[in-house]
Automatic annotation (TrEMBL):
Pfam families: Response_reg, Trans_reg_C. The gene is srrA_2. Residues 127-224 bind DNA. It comes from Sutcliffiella rhizosphaerae. The keyword Phosphoprotein applies. Keywords: DNA-binding, Phosphoprotein, Transcription, Transcription regulation, Two-component regulatory system. This is Transcriptional regulatory protein SrrA.
Length: 227
């Protein structure tokens, strides 16, 4: 299960980034890196991140400010790192939206155990229901809501929308979409099937349909966050 998770490490110290990379990759995680909060925000927009390890003391945009900005848009767990033992740092970080706190130097086993616990807790809480803007999906009921109003989607329409939403920001060709949603080889006729379903989904979602973007010459993507 852990191998499917991607962790963003935000720390201005190269030695610490290398150390965390070694621990995380050995435990099966994929890893992204940022040297400050600004870089972290850019990476979050472009990548699916499951958990953030965020250092407190950084140039340009410190960990506290970055945590606050991240929480304005994103729900993934945030684990903060600090070299300080000041209780105020811990309380302030938690108030700003951090989920846990680890002090340097730390035990690798403790760090990995805390990461696993956070991911388990978040997946239990958010796996079934998630939202982008005014669109909410309840996966256990295979139900979609826009502005809290139920939207009736056919089976393939729901599967297609869910696939795009779960890969928010990533572009997929008609062939890729058809193979995932329909599970068959694609041809010109199947491309038209994808286009037709996209058109129908947009119509049913009404104003929220603008979140499904056409990428000319390639295919489609779901863009749920404002830039």
């Amino acid at each position: 299960m852990k191998n499917s998770f991607q962790v963003l490490v935000v720390d201005d110290e190269a030695d610490m980034r290398n150390l965390l990379e070694m621990y995380l990759k050995k435990d099966g995680y994929e890893v992204l890196f940022a040297e400050n909060g600004e870089e972290a925000l850019d990476l979050l927009f472009l990548n699916k991140v499951d958990l953030i390890i965020l250092d407190v003391m950084m140039p340009e945009l410190d960990g506290f400010t970055a945590c606050k900005k991240i929480r304005e848009k994103y729900l993934m767990p945030i684990l903060m790192l600090t070299a300080k033992s000041d209780e105020w740092d811990k309380v302030n970080g938690l108030k700003l939206g951090a989920d846990d706190y680890v002090m340097k130097p730390f035990s690798p086993k403790e760090l990995l155990a805390r990461i696993e616990a956070l991911l388990r807790r978040y997946n239990q809480a958010f796996f079934d229901v998630f939202s982008y803007g005014n669109i909410t999906v309840q996966k256990s009921a295979r139900q979609v809501y826009v502005d809290d109003k139920k939207v009736n989607l056919a089976r393939r329409e729901y599967d297609l929308l869910l696939f795009l939403m779960e890969h928010e920001g990533k572009v997929f060709s008609r062939e890729q979409i058809h193979e995932v949603v329909w599970g068959m080889d694609s041809d010109n006729e199947s491309y038209r099937t994808v286009d037709t379903h996209i058109k129908t989904i947009r119509f049913k979602l009404k104003s929220a349909g603008v979140n499904i973007k056409t990428v000319w010459g390639i295919g489609y993507k779901f863009e749920g966050m404002e830039t």
